[in-house]
Design a protein that fits this description.
102 residues; alpha+beta; two-stranded antiparallel ribbon; 3 helices; globular; binds FE2/S2 (inorganic) cluster
């Protein structure tokens, strides 16, 4: 879900949905991850796992967690909308499962 708000300049701005779950395995939201990065200033993306286990399940969210960490302004990091994100993860998990059966 996209949140539309008025910016300080009086322009309609699209705000990122901070309640979107980034780690679907552990239900860790974008807001929690950004807060973790702001407070703990991790050096490596793997350290974000200390934020409620984010990234320690299927692995789908790891590139997105890394993206938030590497962005100068994490609020601006582009993440697919919730529906697209979840369906891409489902495809990722299916492919991973198929590969492990080979
Ligand atoms: S979605 Fe984060 S580890 Fe699976």
């Amino acid at each position: 879900m996209v949140d539309y708000r008025w910016s300080e300049l009086g322009q309609l701005a699209v705000m990122k949905n901070e309640d979107q779950e980034l780690c679907l395995c552990f239900h860790v939201t974008r807001r929690k991850v950004m807060q973790f990065i702001r407070v703990n200033r991790p050096k490596y993306a793997s350290q974000i796992s200390e934020c409620y286990g984010a990234g320690t399940g299927c692995g789908w969210c790891r590139p997105f967690l890394r993206k938030l960490l590497e962005e100068a302004n994490p609020e601006e990091a582009e993440i697919p909308d919730s529906e697209t994100y979840a369906s891409q993860r489902a495809a990722y998990r299916e492919e991973k499962k198929t590969r492990s059966e080979d």
